[in-house]
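Re-run requested by the PI after the first attempt was lost when the workstation crashed. Everything re-entered from the original request form. Ligand of interest: ribulose-5-phosphate.
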Amino acid sequence: MNALTQDELKTLVGQAALAYVVPGEIVGVGTGSTVNKFIEALASMKDRIPGAVSSSVASTERLRALGIPVFDANEVGELAVYIDGADEIDGRGFMVKGGGAALTREKIVAAEARRFVCIADESKLVATLGAFPLPVEVIPMATQRVVRQFAALGGVARVRLKDGVPLVTDNGQHIVDVTGLSLTDPLAFESEVNQWPGVVTVGVFAHQKAQVCLLGTSGGVKTLK
Ligand code: 5RP
């Protein structure tokens, strides 16, 4: 049998995540190409859930296009589960996220959920976080100050561009991507960077880590807890 493509692995975990959706409960939905597979799969059980809380404009549009109602996070209380992808995940469930620039809303919805189920293909599993450029959402007037603060830690931070100009997030802010850091203590790192002036959210998800990871591998879906 041929090895599965990365796209097929994403489909596999997107479908496997349905087992974690609680019938009768609103589900938290992340952002990205893996989550898009989950959203497609979720349409098959839309009559068994009231709807979703979404972490981005892009996911909201996809959910609504499939007839899945989307609620404002302020209208709902605690969520049973939040399903989202990751750019990197380690064996403890700590993640780097924000490759799709949706990290702040992702962290908000994750914080509302009792359980974070990460869906990822096996390329995302790492021993130590930090090889993927770390996304940080920053208020535009603070970007150069934040770039200097990362330089002092030995990192190189660059403002993310789209069509040649700084990308603007769903929240009207900018993203800096940081390379050259090895995140050996994700909990402490997240706490420190999150209190720098101008930082909206750092893309380390350690305080909002995954309780379950559904990893798409050539041998099928592996569940890491
Ligand atoms: C978006 C994210 C995504 O979860 C992350 O970038 C993974 O995306 P993909 O499933 O496309 O690889 O954090 O902000």
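Saved to the shared folder this time. The pocket of ribulose-5-phosphate is lined by residues 30-34, 84-87, 97-103, 106 (CB under 6 Å).
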